[in-house]
């Protein structure tokens, strides 16, 4: 799959011809406040089957990049020859980012504690650190300034915390060891706060306690997934709930619970699984959440993450477009 | 690009050694949303026309390198990417007859961030009819 630069430019030239990229790249300072972006995970069911990675870039470009570059999240799996991408591929990546006006923001990566078995022993602190540093370096090479740093989860049936997504016992040691590396590479490590975890919970208390005690800001913080706010069960969503792990019946976080966390939140997943033709998301209180972010001068990217029922059957592209209409209205960009 | 189905039509053929069929190959793509370290795969099972092949008869080729399923368990630094179908090579003296076969493949993997006991078994696919030309 490796392309020469000439081949790439020929391909890119064809793709670019239809795209209205008339804006001159600006060196102006980044727009403050909440900004739009997309996690290419939204398109994962189409990628490699109906479209290429470059098609995803072109699609994001078409979500209105006239005023600023849209933020981008990709997962490690899109990186050719990950974890050892070639220089040619890295060059191709940066060329695509420039051409399509997308800004690498968050690298979705994992500490695979269960690399060798399910029930332990899990990866040691040293082994976990090595995985983490490997991803910081790959992510940084691709221009990412944040990582959606997924920590391993140790809950087992019968444990008291079972199904609350308790991270591995040595997560503090792993992160502490990696802090200087994160700073050196300008890479913020952010575990994702995802359903069924609640914002008002022991796990969040532990994270905040660690962040404050170890003064990790901004190199270790939080990525909030807006699925935690889903307060109406979705009729159409996958399993009637946010994608991935569902919220427990009847439990959800209130938008105002994010306020105290904002100093430590460096990125958000704009999770959604339903969006109607009025471009409204009926089961997650987006207006209230965005309003809080604006009022509290939160600065960062909202990365669209679609997990609707039609994601596997070609629905993702239209759904993300509708969500960006919604976000533009709420952010005063419409 | 890859076929939408996980079991791929293209690449389904016998493997010949010294002019004799010694087995067959079939390609399988992962629909899991991320690449998988080889050690986190919990194994491939191939069934053709109702005959299930033991795992020690099925090797896996990823990134141009071929691994036994036992070898894969120890390799935690090579990833099976989403953009590549794994080539499964099955030892079967005489190979398969030319024509239509029903092929089902089961594959599973661990997931570090899902509570224990909930890791993903992808399960056996519904048999797909594939045409063997050589």
Q: So what's the CATH class of chain A? A: Alpha Beta
**Structural class, from helix and strand content of chain B?**
mainly beta
CATH-scheme architecture of chain A? Alpha-Beta Barrel
What profile does the largest beta sheet of chain B have?
Answer: 5 strands, antiparallel
% residues in beta strands of chain B:
over 45%
| Helix vs. strand class of chain A | alpha/beta
Mean pLDDT of chain A, to the nearest integer, reads 87
How many domains make up the 3D coordinates of chain A?
A: 1
- N-to-C span of chain A: 40 Å
Structural Rg of chain A: 19 Å
Discrete helix count of chain B: 1
Question: What is the number of E strands of chain A?
Answer: 9
The oligomeric state is: heterodimer
Low-confidence stretches of chain B: none
By CATH, the superfamily of chain A comes out as: Divalent-metal-dependent TIM barrel enzymes
* Helix content estimate of chain B: under 10%
Please give the share of residues in helix of chain A. 25-40%
Strand order of the largest sheet of chain A: 5-4-3-2-1-9-8-7-6
Query: Tally of extended strands of chain B?
Result: 12
- Give the N-terminus to C-terminus distance of chain B in angstroms: 23 Å
Q: If you had to describe this structure to a student in words, what would you say it looks like?
A:
The complex is a heterodimer of chains A (334) and B (134). With 334 residues, chain A is of the alpha/beta class. Chain A has a single domain (5-331), classed as TIM Barrel (Alpha-Beta Barrel), CATH 3.20.20.150. Chain A contains 8 helices and 9 strands. In chain A, strands 5-4-3-2-1-9-8-7-6 form a 9-stranded parallel sheet. In chain A, helix 7 (286-295) links the parallel strand 8 (265-272) and strand 9 (300-306). In chain A, helix 1 (5-16) packs parallel to helix 3 and helix 4 runs parallel beside helix 5. The model of chain A is unreliable at 1-27 and 235-244 (pLDDT under 50). Chain B is mostly beta strands. Chain B is 3% helix and 52% strand. Chain B has one helix at 69-72; strands at 7-17, 20-28, 36-37, 41-48, 51-53, 58-62, 65-68, 79-80, 86-91, 99-109, 121-124, 128-132. Chain B has a 5-stranded antiparallel sheet. In chain B, strands 4, 5, 10, 11 and 12 form a 5-stranded antiparallel sheet that branches. In chain B, strand 6 and strand 7 (65-68) form a beta hairpin. Chain B is globular and about 45 Å long. Chain A binds chain B through residues 1, 41, 44-45, 47-52, 75-78, 80-83, 108, 110-119, 150-157, 162-163, 165, 245, and chain B through 1-4, 29, 31, 33-35, 37, 39-40, 63, 73-74, 76-77, 79, 81-83, 110-117, 119.
């Amino acid at each position: 799959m490796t392309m020469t630069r000439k081949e790439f430019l020929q391909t890119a030239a064809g793709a670019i011809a239809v795209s209205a990229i008339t804006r001159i790249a600006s060196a102006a300072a980044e727009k403050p406040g909440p900004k739009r972006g997309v996690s290419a995970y939204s398109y994962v069911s189409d990628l490699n089957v109906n479209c290429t990675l470059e098609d995803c870039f072109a699609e994001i470009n078409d979500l209105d990049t006239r005023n600023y570059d849209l933020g981008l999240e990709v997962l490690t799996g899109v990186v050719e020859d990950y974890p050892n991408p070639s220089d040619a591929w890295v060059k191709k990546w940066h060329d695509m980012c420039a051409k399509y006006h997308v800004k690498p923001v968050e690298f979705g990566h994992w500490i695979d504690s269960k690399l060798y078995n399910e029930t332990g022993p899990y990866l040691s602190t040293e082994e976990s650190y090595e995985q983490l540093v490997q991803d910081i370096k790959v992510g940084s090479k691709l221009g990412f300034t944040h990582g959606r740093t997924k920590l391993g989860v140790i809950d087992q049936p019968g444990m008291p915390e079972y199904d609350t997504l308790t991270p591995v016992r040595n997560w503090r040691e792993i992160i502490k060891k990696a802090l200087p590396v994160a700073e050196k590479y300008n890479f913020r490590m952010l575990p994702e706060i995802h359903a069924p975890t609640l914002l008002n919970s022991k796990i969040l208390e532990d994270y905040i306690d660690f962040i404050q005690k170890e003064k990790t800001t901004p190199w270790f913080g939080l990525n909030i997934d807006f699925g935690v706010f889903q307060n109406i069960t979705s009729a159409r969503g996958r399993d009637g709930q946010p994608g991935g792990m569902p919220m427990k019946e009847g439990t959800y976080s209130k938008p105002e619970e994010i306020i105290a966390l904002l100093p430590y939140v460096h990125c958000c997943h704009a999770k959604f699984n339903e969006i109607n033709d009025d471009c409204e998301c009926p089961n997650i209180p987006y207006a209230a959440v965005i309003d809080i972010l604006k009022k509290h001068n939160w600065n960062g990217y909202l990365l669209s993450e679609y997990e609707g029922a039609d994601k596997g059957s070609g629905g993702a592209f239209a759904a993300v477009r509708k969500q960006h209409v919604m976000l533009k209205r709420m952010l005063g960009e419409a | 690009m890859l076929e939408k189905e996980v079991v791929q039509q293209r690449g389904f053929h016998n493997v010949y050694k010294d002019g004799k069929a010694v087995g067959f190959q079939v390609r399988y793509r992962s629909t899991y949303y991320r690449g998988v370290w080889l050690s986190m795969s919990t194994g491939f099972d191939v069934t053709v026309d109702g005959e299930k092949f033991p795992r020690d008869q099925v090797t896996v080729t990823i990134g141009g390198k071929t691994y036994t399923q036992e070898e894969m368990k120890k390799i935690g630094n090579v990833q099976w990417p989403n953009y590549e179908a794994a080539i499964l090579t099955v030892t079967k003296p005489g190979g398969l007859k030319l024509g239509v076969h029903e092929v089902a493949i089961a594959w599973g993997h661990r997931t570090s961030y899902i509570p224990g006991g909930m890791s993903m078994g992808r399960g056996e696919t519904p048999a797909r009819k594939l045409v063997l030309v050589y």
